[in-house]
C-alpha cells in the first residue's frame, strides 16, 4: 500500500481499488505507540552521541578549543559556492505505521565492479556502510532482504580493521574497508566504508541496505566518503543539498543556487554534527522561548523539541490540543488545525513548516484527530532534532570548507 503515498500521477496508474479512501485512512494513521517507537529509535540514536559529546567537549576544552570556538563565532560565514553538483534521486521509504516513520534512500555503489545499494541518506552519522555478504540472519536480522557488500568480489577492496558503532536501537560490529565508492557518475577512489558483521534487531525491518553517512564530526573526518572525495579532487566542493519534496533528490558537490537565490546561510562551528545554532521553532502567537540548537538529521523520522518549547507552540489560544503525559510528549488535535509552525533563524528569517508534514491521522482512541510528528521530550540529554517530518518543508544545504562550515536553508520550492 506504500504506493498510495505517490503523487496523483502515480496513483492514476494504480488499480484504484487499492487506494480506496477507507483503506488509505487505515493504512496511514498512527497512534501514540507508533510515535513512541519512532521516538525511542531517535533517542537510542543519540544515547551514545550525547555521551560522546560530553566526553569530547571536555577534551576539546582542555586543548583550548573554547577560545577557538569563541573566536570562530565572530568569523564571517564563507561565501556560498555557485556551483551545481551531481543530482541523485532519493527514494522515500518506510513511513508509519509500517515502520519508524519515513526516511530516504539513495543508490550508492561500492567496490569494483560496483555493487549497488540503497542506503539511507543520513546527515546524522558519518560512516557509510552496508551489511556484509558473510553475515547470517542470526547476527544481521533481515539480511535475506538486503543487498550485501562482498569485499572478495571487489578488486579494489582493502581491509583496514574493525569498528564498533552505536546506531538507532543497538550496537553494530563492522569491518572497515578502503574501497571505491560510486555516486552516480562520481567515483571516490579511496573511501573508508563499513561492512556490517552484526547489526541490531530493528535494522532488519528498515527498508535499506545500510547508511550513507553525510554527517560531520571532526574527530572521524577521514571516514566520511565526501571528505575522501574532496582529498581526491581539489575542485570538489563538500556541499550537499537535500530536497525531500515530491521529487526528492540529493545533490552532491553543489546546490541549485539559481532556484534558491534567497538561501539563508548559517555558520556552523559545532564539531560534532550539523547543528543549526540558536534557532527557534515557534508559531505566530506562541509564547516566547529561548533559542535552541537544532540537529539537522535526515536519518531521524520524528522531529523533537524540549517539551517546554512544544508546549509554547501547542498552548495557543484558539487551538484545541490534547497532550500526553508520558515520554515522548505527543499532541493530538483536530486534523484541520492550522499549526503554522516556523523555524526562526538567528538572522530573523522565518522558514515555514507545512502542517501536512507534521500532522498525521490518529487511530488512537485516547488521542483522536491528528497526531503531531513533532514531539516533545523532557530528557535534557537529548538534542533537539530536525528530522524528516520538518526537513520535508525545507531545502537544506550542508557545506564544508577550509574557511568554515555552514547550513543553508530556504522554504522548499515546488
Ligand atoms: C497502534 O497502531 C499500530 C498500527 O499503526 C497497531 O499495530 C497497534 O496495535 C496500535 N496500538 C494501539 C495501542 O492502539
Ligand atoms: C533502490 O530503490 C529503488 C526504489 O525502490 C529501486 O527502484 C531501485 O532498483 C533500488 N536499487 C537497488 C540497487 O536496490
Ligand atoms: C586506500 O587505497 C588507495 C589506493 O587504492 C591508497 O592510495 C590509500 O592510501 C589507501 N588508504 C588507506 C587508509 O589504506
Ligand atoms: C525529478 O528530478 C530529476 C532529477 O533532478 C529530474 O531529472 C526530473 O525531471 C524531475 N521530475 C519532475 C517530475 O520534476
From TrEMBL:
It comes from Kalmanozyma brasiliensis (strain GHG001). Residues 1-19 form the signal peptide. Belongs to the peptidase A1 family. It comes from the Eukaryota. Residues 144-164 are annotated as: Disordered. Keywords: Aspartyl protease, Hydrolase, Protease, Signal. GO terms for biological process: proteolysis. GO terms for molecular function: aspartic-type endopeptidase activity. Residues 104-410 form the Peptidase A1 domain. InterPro entries: Aspartic_peptidase_A1, Aspartic_peptidase_AS, Pepsin-like_dom, PEPTIDASE_A1, Peptidase_aspartic_dom_sf. PANTHER family: BETA-SITE APP-CLEAVING ENZYME, ISOFORM A-RELATED. This is Peptidase A1 domain-containing protein.
